[in-house]
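Q: Here's a chain of 231 amino acids. Please give me its 3D structure as tokens.
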Amino acid sequence: MHRKTNITHPAQFTEKLQAVMQGAYDLLELAREHDLSPVSEDGVIRYFEEHGKACFQVSGQYDRPTEFLQVLLDIIRANFEPCVLGTLFLNSNLCFLYDEVPDAPFQLGYASLTSQPNQGFAAFWDEQVIPYLEQCGYTLGGADGATAVYAMASTGQERYGYDAFMNDISTKLGSGFSVEEATALLASEINEAVSPPRKRVYTGYCLDPALGSRIRLSLWLFIAAHEQTVQ
């Protein structure tokens, strides 16, 4: 039986909804890959600067806009996922995301791919994900590689669990915390003098019944800044 709950504070609901949408708008604008000018080369007015860009124009400033939106949605989903597989993942641990944002300018890489039904994660990663990242111009290793990687893995009910899903992914990506790292992480929450362990790859897990036995992997990569392309 589904309970029906009234929104008892409509004004606050509207205020928070506007804040969420404005935050998404601002983030998309900050991370844009190219800038849409208000007037096209042939003189067509696209938008009035005093009113700003429409939402579809902001997302259109990406080479792969629907993919960027999917990654952003999966980051939000991972942090609010009610069916969590553990407490030391990206799920509900926003500090793992915030703490690794570089102080200096950086490039934000993104990708979202979906595996074949029942495909093993290692094969999916090696055969589809890595070649696609290279195609996008992203490097995981080396001096020019990502300083931090956030991987949000979603799958359906039949596959969502510890062994053939979570463990396979964390083992392949090296994102799990050892006993020593977990102890140090807990100690850092109690004693500020203790530095928390830092990972290069953080993983979050989501349940999405629509995927069945497929895995959708959405990635954010923090990469050292290259030549600036957005003015």
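Q: Can you summarize the key feature?
A: DSSP finds seven helices and four strands in the chain.
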